Amino acid sequence: xxxxxxxxxxxxxxxxxxxxxxxxxxxxxxxxxxxxxxxxxxxxxxxxxxxxxxxxxxxxxxxxxxxxxxxxxxxxxxxxxxxxxxxxxxxxxxxxxxxxxxxxxxxxxxxxxxxxxxxxxxxxxxxxxxxxxxxxxxxxxxxxxxxxxxxxxxxxxxxxxxxxxxxxxxxxxxxxxxxx
Length: 180
Fold this sequence. Notes:
Elements: H1 8-35, H2 41-66, H3 70-80, E1 87-95, E2 98-100, E3 110-118, E4 127-129, E5 147-154, E6 157-162, E7 174-179
Parallel strand pairs: 1-3
Antiparallel strand pairs: 1-2, 3-5, 4-6, 6-7
Protein backbone atom coordinates (compact mmCIF):
# COMPACT_ATOMS: atom_id res chain seq x y z
CA UNK A 1 0.00 0.00 0.00
CA UNK A 2 2.89 2.37 0.75
CA UNK A 3 4.37 1.82 -2.71
CA UNK A 4 1.14 2.92 -4.41
CA UNK A 5 1.59 6.45 -3.04
CA UNK A 6 5.19 6.87 -4.13
CA UNK A 7 6.59 8.07 -7.45
CA UNK A 8 8.31 5.66 -9.82
CA UNK A 9 11.76 6.99 -8.89
CA UNK A 10 11.16 6.37 -5.22
CA UNK A 11 9.76 2.88 -5.85
CA UNK A 12 12.80 2.02 -7.98
CA UNK A 13 15.20 3.35 -5.32
CA UNK A 14 13.53 1.37 -2.54
CA UNK A 15 13.40 -1.72 -4.76
CA UNK A 16 17.10 -1.60 -5.62
CA UNK A 17 18.22 -1.25 -2.00
CA UNK A 18 15.78 -3.94 -0.86
CA UNK A 19 16.84 -6.32 -3.64
CA UNK A 20 20.50 -5.83 -2.68
CA UNK A 21 19.78 -6.54 0.98
CA UNK A 22 17.60 -9.57 0.27
CA UNK A 23 20.00 -10.87 -2.39
CA UNK A 24 22.93 -10.67 0.03
CA UNK A 25 20.92 -12.48 2.70
CA UNK A 26 19.96 -15.28 0.31
CA UNK A 27 23.47 -15.72 -1.10
CA UNK A 28 25.16 -15.91 2.31
CA UNK A 29 22.40 -18.16 3.66
CA UNK A 30 22.14 -20.71 0.88
CA UNK A 31 24.86 -20.45 -1.78
CA UNK A 32 28.06 -19.61 0.10
CA UNK A 33 27.67 -22.35 2.76
CA UNK A 34 27.48 -25.00 -0.02
CA UNK A 35 30.94 -24.04 -1.31
CA UNK A 36 32.41 -23.12 2.06
CA UNK A 37 30.70 -24.93 4.96
CA UNK A 38 32.82 -23.01 7.51
CA UNK A 39 31.59 -19.63 6.22
CA UNK A 40 32.22 -16.99 7.51
CA UNK A 41 34.75 -18.64 9.77
CA UNK A 42 36.73 -17.03 12.58
CA UNK A 43 38.73 -14.78 10.26
CA UNK A 44 35.73 -13.51 8.27
CA UNK A 45 33.15 -12.97 10.98
CA UNK A 46 34.14 -9.33 11.55
CA UNK A 47 33.87 -8.43 7.87
CA UNK A 48 30.60 -10.35 7.59
CA UNK A 49 29.14 -8.46 10.57
CA UNK A 50 30.22 -5.08 9.18
CA UNK A 51 28.69 -5.84 5.78
CA UNK A 52 25.43 -6.96 7.42
CA UNK A 53 25.23 -3.82 9.54
CA UNK A 54 26.08 -1.58 6.57
CA UNK A 55 23.37 -3.16 4.40
CA UNK A 56 20.83 -2.90 7.22
CA UNK A 57 21.71 0.79 7.72
CA UNK A 58 21.44 1.38 3.96
CA UNK A 59 17.95 -0.15 4.01
CA UNK A 60 16.83 2.13 6.87
CA UNK A 61 18.29 5.22 5.21
CA UNK A 62 16.63 4.35 1.90
CA UNK A 63 13.25 4.09 3.63
CA UNK A 64 13.77 7.51 5.22
CA UNK A 65 14.93 9.09 1.94
CA UNK A 66 12.71 7.37 -0.62
CA UNK A 67 9.67 6.99 1.64
CA UNK A 68 9.02 10.76 1.62
CA UNK A 69 7.16 12.04 -1.41
CA UNK A 70 8.08 15.66 -2.15
CA UNK A 71 5.32 16.23 -4.71
CA UNK A 72 2.76 15.65 -1.94
CA UNK A 73 3.85 18.90 -0.29
CA UNK A 74 3.72 20.81 -3.61
CA UNK A 75 0.18 19.66 -4.29
CA UNK A 76 -0.88 20.57 -0.79
CA UNK A 77 0.42 24.13 -1.17
CA UNK A 78 -1.82 24.69 -4.19
CA UNK A 79 -4.97 23.68 -2.31
CA UNK A 80 -3.92 25.24 0.97
CA UNK A 81 -4.90 28.84 0.45
CA UNK A 82 -6.71 30.17 -2.59
CA UNK A 83 -5.41 33.67 -3.24
CA UNK A 84 -7.78 36.53 -3.98
CA UNK A 85 -10.87 35.24 -2.18
CA UNK A 86 -12.25 35.86 1.27
CA UNK A 87 -12.72 32.14 1.85
CA UNK A 88 -9.82 29.73 1.79
CA UNK A 89 -9.83 25.96 2.02
CA UNK A 90 -7.23 23.91 3.84
CA UNK A 91 -7.18 20.14 3.35
CA UNK A 92 -6.37 18.21 6.55
CA UNK A 93 -5.71 14.49 6.90
CA UNK A 94 -5.95 12.72 10.26
CA UNK A 95 -4.53 9.27 10.96
CA UNK A 96 -3.38 7.45 14.08
CA UNK A 97 -1.80 9.62 15.63
CA UNK A 98 -0.98 12.46 13.30
CA UNK A 99 -2.60 15.58 11.88
CA UNK A 100 -1.24 16.29 8.43
CA UNK A 101 -1.62 19.86 7.20
CA UNK A 102 -0.35 21.15 3.87
CA UNK A 103 3.02 22.86 3.96
CA UNK A 104 2.08 26.36 5.09
CA UNK A 105 4.48 29.06 6.11
CA UNK A 106 2.24 31.92 7.20
CA UNK A 107 -1.31 32.37 5.95
CA UNK A 108 -3.10 35.70 5.77
CA UNK A 109 -5.94 36.48 8.17
CA UNK A 110 -9.38 35.59 6.90
CA UNK A 111 -12.05 32.95 6.84
CA UNK A 112 -10.86 29.38 6.35
CA UNK A 113 -12.70 26.14 5.77
CA UNK A 114 -10.80 23.12 7.05
CA UNK A 115 -11.80 19.99 5.14
CA UNK A 116 -10.80 17.21 7.53
CA UNK A 117 -10.48 13.64 6.26
CA UNK A 118 -10.16 10.85 8.81
CA UNK A 119 -7.87 8.41 6.99
CA UNK A 120 -7.35 6.45 10.20
CA UNK A 121 -9.05 3.37 11.54
CA UNK A 122 -10.64 4.93 14.63
CA UNK A 123 -12.80 8.05 15.17
CA UNK A 124 -11.08 11.42 15.52
CA UNK A 125 -12.17 15.03 15.62
CA UNK A 126 -10.60 18.38 14.76
CA UNK A 127 -10.37 21.35 17.10
CA UNK A 128 -8.62 24.69 16.76
CA UNK A 129 -7.63 27.07 19.56
CA UNK A 130 -5.94 30.43 19.46
CA UNK A 131 -6.48 34.19 19.60
CA UNK A 132 -9.71 35.80 18.37
CA UNK A 133 -11.50 32.80 16.87
CA UNK A 134 -15.00 33.26 15.53
CA UNK A 135 -17.33 30.48 14.58
CA UNK A 136 -17.39 26.89 15.83
CA UNK A 137 -13.99 25.65 16.95
CA UNK A 138 -14.46 21.88 16.84
CA UNK A 139 -15.93 19.24 14.57
CA UNK A 140 -18.07 16.40 15.83
CA UNK A 141 -16.43 12.97 15.91
CA UNK A 142 -15.38 11.90 12.43
CA UNK A 143 -15.74 8.18 11.73
CA UNK A 144 -12.91 6.32 10.01
CA UNK A 145 -13.04 6.98 6.27
CA UNK A 146 -15.31 10.01 6.65
CA UNK A 147 -14.68 13.72 6.49
CA UNK A 148 -16.01 16.93 8.02
CA UNK A 149 -15.72 20.66 7.45
CA UNK A 150 -15.02 23.42 9.94
CA UNK A 151 -15.19 27.09 8.93
CA UNK A 152 -13.53 29.66 11.18
CA UNK A 153 -12.26 33.21 10.92
CA UNK A 154 -8.62 33.54 11.89
CA UNK A 155 -6.82 36.71 12.84
CA UNK A 156 -3.10 37.25 13.41
CA UNK A 157 -1.54 34.77 15.79
CA UNK A 158 -0.56 31.15 16.22
CA UNK A 159 -3.35 28.58 16.35
CA UNK A 160 -3.10 25.07 17.72
CA UNK A 161 -4.90 22.22 15.99
CA UNK A 162 -5.58 19.04 17.97
CA UNK A 163 -7.73 15.95 18.17
CA UNK A 164 -9.59 16.23 21.47
CA UNK A 165 -10.22 12.50 21.87
CA UNK A 166 -8.64 11.71 25.26
CA UNK A 167 -4.97 10.81 24.86
CA UNK A 168 -4.72 11.57 21.13
CA UNK A 169 -2.98 14.95 21.54
CA UNK A 170 -0.35 13.34 23.79
CA UNK A 171 0.23 10.69 21.11
CA UNK A 172 1.06 13.36 18.51
CA UNK A 173 -2.24 14.56 17.09
CA UNK A 174 -1.39 18.24 17.19
CA UNK A 175 -0.22 20.88 14.73
CA UNK A 176 0.12 24.64 14.48
CA UNK A 177 -0.85 27.19 11.89
CA UNK A 178 0.62 30.71 11.82
CA UNK A 179 -1.65 33.52 10.69
CA UNK A 180 0.10 36.78 10.02
